[in-house]
Amino acid sequence: MSGQAGIAKQSIIEAAIELFTTKGFKGTTIRDIAGRARLNSANISYYFQGKQGLLEACLVSFFEPYLTLLEKENKKVAWEDPEICFHRAIRKILVFQSDHHLLTRFVWREITIDSQISREIISSYLMKERYYFKELTSAVIGEHHSALPVSMIIIQLKGMLSTPFLNSHYISEVWGMHPKEPYFIEKYYESIIDWLQEALKVQKSDMHADRPPAPAIKTV
């Protein structure tokens, strides 16, 4: 692909990300994207075969580098401390999402919609993500038992990693914090690590011996 074509494709993707985030996928037209990218509508059909193909390209532009970050840290476990690799993966994910905050917000929001494309993403990219997180978590725990089940650790960690970007408007307006700022990312990273270290603590055999029963949940 020529440099000119590469620039055109990137301009289209950036315009699509901005419009998909603010107007939604259904509320955005090919003409809107072409106008924002300052290109002809025919370019979108030529490079992406339409709006659906452009949506898929946006999702791939997020998940490919995102999973590469996790994959690299998984490989380093063979010769580095697993805990260091896990912490580094978390930091890299936060920085990556902060650098691409609009794309991140759109992608995680899109995954919450029950659609064909979201099911494809879940069955491919997110299943691979689960594998990488399970490998990192298990490497840190080793032969012991953690304070929480591995599945619960990963589910809660996933929520922590996506929340600032999925709810960036709330965080900005209510708390006066901005997920795209390095200071926020550093402080948020530290809070995740503090929580993770507690969650991954080796469970003592008698840890639950004197624990009172959980209160019943009342339903209205």
Strand elements, count: 0
Task: Figure out the total of helices.
Answer: 10
- Overall mean pLDDT stands at 87
Beta-strand percent range: under 5%
CATH architecture of the largest domain: Orthogonal Bundle
Keywords: DNA-binding, Repressor
Protein name: TetR/AcrR family transcriptional regulator
InterPro entries: DNA-bd_HTH_TetR-type_CS, Homeodomain-like_sf, HTH-type_Tx_Regulator, HTH_TetR, Tet_transcr_reg_TetR-rel_C_sf
GO molecular function, one term: DNA binding
List the SSEs and their pairings.
Layout: H1 3-23, H2 30-37, H3 41-48, H4 51-76, H5 82-99, H6 101-111, H7 116-141, H8 150-166, H9 168-175, H10 182-199
Helix pairs in contact: 1-2, 1-4, 1-6, 3-4, 4-5, 4-7, 5-7, 5-10, 7-8
Highlighted features:
Arc Repressor Mutant, subunit A, mainly alpha, 10 helices, 73% helix, Tetracycline Repressor, domain 2, single chain, 220 residues
Structure description:
- There is one protein chain.
- This protein has 220 residues and is mostly helical.
- The protein folds into two domains: 1-49, Homeodomain-like (Arc Repressor Mutant, subunit A, Orthogonal Bundle); 56-199, Tetracycline Repressor, domain 2, CATH 1.10.357.10.
- It is 73% helix and 0% strand.
- It contains ten helices and no strands.
- The chain has helices at 3-23, 30-37, 41-48, 51-76, 82-99, 101-111, 116-141, 150-166, 168-175, 182-199.
- Helix 3 (41-48) crosses helix 4 and helix 4 (51-76) runs antiparallel to helix 5.
- The protein starts with a helix and ends in a 21-residue tail after the last helix.
- Residues 204-212 have low confidence and may be disordered.
